[in-house]
User: What shape does this take?
Amino acid sequence: MTVGEEPYLQPTALARPRVIVALTTLNGRLVRTRQFSKPMYVGDPINAVKIFSDKGADELVLLEIGGKPLDGPREAAIRDIASEALMPISYGGGIRTVEHVRAVIRCGFEKVILNTVLHENLGLATQSAAEFGAQAVVGAIEVKTTWLRGKHVRTCCGRRSTRIPVVEWARRCVDAGCGELLITSIDADGSMGGYDLPLVSEVAAAVSVPVIALGGAGNAGHLQAAIAAGASAVAAGSMFVLHGPRRAVLITYPEDPLNGGSAGTAGVK
Assistant: This one.
């Protein structure tokens, strides 16, 4: 090693996979859904992000499902949310142009999450990756099981079917410049009954970039199962926001979420 060189640190096999908090907003209000329907109001996103920051969450993704393009007032709102985050934070929802991507990065987000827009303009991933790096571009893929048991990609928060096979679209997103994929099972969303493990395994085996599993997590065992299936990281929403059979609003984030470690709790207003 010559003078001035940084020592190379051998990656450790003991590094814990990321456990990501997934927060969903509808017109700026924090909500939870089941199978992408019946949004239930659960509080203020700024307060929730502050609590998760205090609890030391690994990472956070914020997904706006209102469907409207990012504009000035919402840009100001997400800037306020990002200001409370002490962890890496990503944003998706209403991003249509490179200028929208720039605005999200300016607001303090490390990554942008692109979904529906990629079906209209896959080149946006290429442009964004060229400007900010592939690590800043996350391709979000929403998946629904059809009546023939096939799994197809959907857009517009699950409302529109594309008839595109999941693996085909995942590879196209990566080829276009996405440095990470967020794979959401619409069927498992909000169920807290476990991830769609075959889906996670199929996508993870087909691409060379990290895959984040989302949809269905309810306990540490579910997180572990998704990692074993090939996910590089696991994301959960209801597991960290709702509690008990009545699904009361109660924010939790264990000190060791992959092993069900102790957790503090807090209400969210």
Summary: Residues 1-14 have pLDDT under 50 and may be disordered. Residues 18-266 form a domain with the TIM Barrel fold (CATH 3.20.20.70). The first helix runs from residue 45 to 54.
